[in-house]
Amino acid sequence: MKGSRVMHLIIANRIADELELTDNSSFLVGGVVPDAVSPKELSHFYSGDNDDYSRSINYKEFLKKNVYIGILLIF
Length: 75
Prior knowledge:
By secondary structure, the protein is mainly alpha-helical. The protein has two domains: 1-43; 45-75, no CATH class. Helix content is 56%, strand content 5%.
């Protein structure tokens, strides 16, 4: 959905402003890239099911994967 990508871009831009990034181009692209794949289950951390309204974001899995990647990028 285009609206979702725009929403991600707006959020990434606000975060970049808060972090006072001087060159935020890569950061903004990174904010939109997860929505560039289909289906979203490939890039989003969902658990549960839409049919029974139990679908939610699995933040622990996101942090487990992305904190490790972030640490690798820092060092």
